[in-house]
Amino acid sequence: MGDDLNVTHITLSGHVEVHKYRYLYFVIMLTAYFLIICFNCTIVCLTVIHKNLHEPMYIFIGALLINSVLYSTNIYPKLLIDFLSEKQIITHSLCFLQASVYYTLAGSEFLLLAVMAYDRYVSICKPLQYPTVMRKAVVNTLLVLSWLVPACEFAVQDAFYASVKLCSFTLKGIFCNSSIYSLQCVRSVAISVYGVLLLLNIVLFPVLFILFTYTRILIVSYQSSKTFRRKAAQTCLPHLLVLINFTCFITYDVVVVRLESDIPKNVGLILALQMIVYHPLFNPIIYGLKMKEISKHLKRLLFQFKSH
Known about the structure:
mainly alpha, disordered N terminus
């Protein structure tokens, strides 16, 4: 079975009493998926419809929320099928694809957050240069690079992994992530080294850049008026909350999954569900409540629904 990777099936062993609670799991996760799509797409649509939201900051927020929908769509359909299936299995090729897309979109999230931090830095610290620096062409280029760079970098890792042979066919999880590399017969030094480089390039460097830009914003805000500080806090706080939230989940992924930490199955399931439910719902709620202009349009939309 291990000789032909195209027909190799991997068992997802992270499910807990799925045969007993399959319909409960299915209803809860289907509801969560529906809410994720509704919440994220509502704000994206508001950004497209209203001209006063056609600013770089809101365009980047829209891109981040689209990324959340893609992130969820990579996981939820297969997960929902598994809840109703007798066996929770996936082909090796699809498992590898899911893991690759999962980390590509995670990398895109960090780069989008870095781009948003840069946008806020220019807006607050160099307001006179903002219209020149954040031109439409620059915004479009930054958006494309935020998705293209992680995709290209993970494509290289995919090439490294193409010839890897498996000796284990049971994955400790409910979806495919970096734990797929623990199934290989021999640990590849090339994959391990490249994985570290990816972690530095896609996660650490963007986070350091974000911390640097917000430190600069904090310094400028401290030296300015109270009104200016309040305005800076209103636009920067949601970005920082999203960054902290997502960094915590990625840290969990690296520490628990990559280091193969021995945690109880129930705890592992809860943490995995938090990653795929909490974060995609957290983004639109934070931006919907904390971003003044988006919140204003959301209230108008809700008022229209109540009127009808």
